[in-house]
Amino acid sequence: MEINIPMPDDFNYKRTVRSHGWYELLPFELDEERWTLTRVLEVGEGQPVTARINAGNRAINVSVPRRLTKRAVERITRDVRHIFRLDDDMKDFYEAVGSDADFDWIPKQGAGRLLRSPTVFEDLVKSICTTNCSWALTDKMVTGLVKNLGRESEDGRRSFPTPEAMAEAPSEFYREEVRAGYRAPYFKELAERVASGELDVESWATSDLPTDKLKREMKRVKGVGDYAAENLLKLVGRYDVMALDSWVRAKYARMHNNGRAAKDKKIERHYSRFNSWRGLALWCDMTRDWME
DNA sequence: GCGTCCAGGTCTACC
DNA sequence: GGTAGACCTGGACGC
Q: Is the CB of A221 less than 7 A from some atom of nucleic acid strand B?
């Protein structure tokens, strides 16, 4: 069956899909020729469903291989809206960057929506998987989690594991199968805290806490330091943080500092005129050439 | 084939 | 609050 979800006029499907590396990590898969984004989604009690997503003229088209209940359709619609941030109001951001010659391409192209997972838990686990390793190892760790602990859809693909499924797996599994190394106990502990209800990470998406307090909360999770917390803050819609990592520092050096390393303070100053949008302006600047 | 470095960093102990 | 050293993995690189 097909589900059509209206999209805002300023929404750029391709820019959003390739807004950062998440589209390369299971349970996302991108067909770069057809621009079909495949994603295994949970629909509640029943078996997960493999959704094939593409963009039409005015709506996002979601194709699923079986007829779903009204409740399941509502859940998929909610997830797709969340993943592509269709409800984000980009007006203020576009106004902030639109009058700057180096950034006016952003509103013109409809960039700035960062692809995210259906749950904060998944974004959090994946953020930990990006720390202190190559992208190839991040991919390997996420693949290990999904293939071993995810629930199977009808075509054999798997969903992202729930906190409960991750809590049941022993620490050795994370070390030996997922190849998570020193992160192994962090995954186990995080999953147990979330599954037991002690830690509600989904509330971070709608939290009223100021950014610095929310960041402190996030950093109480083992394995989450400044970079991972700030990356996650961007994914929950807080753009007054930079999330500087070695990739951004190297890219900034190439783009704006004649190939020489720049101090973090200097990078922050470069985008400070965008105030609460500085983190998003930075990321758009760094990834401008991804679609050129 | 082997050793070293480091990648989309974080934790702990110590000052 | 700031910093040094340890920490898993695996690909790239030099020898």
A: yes
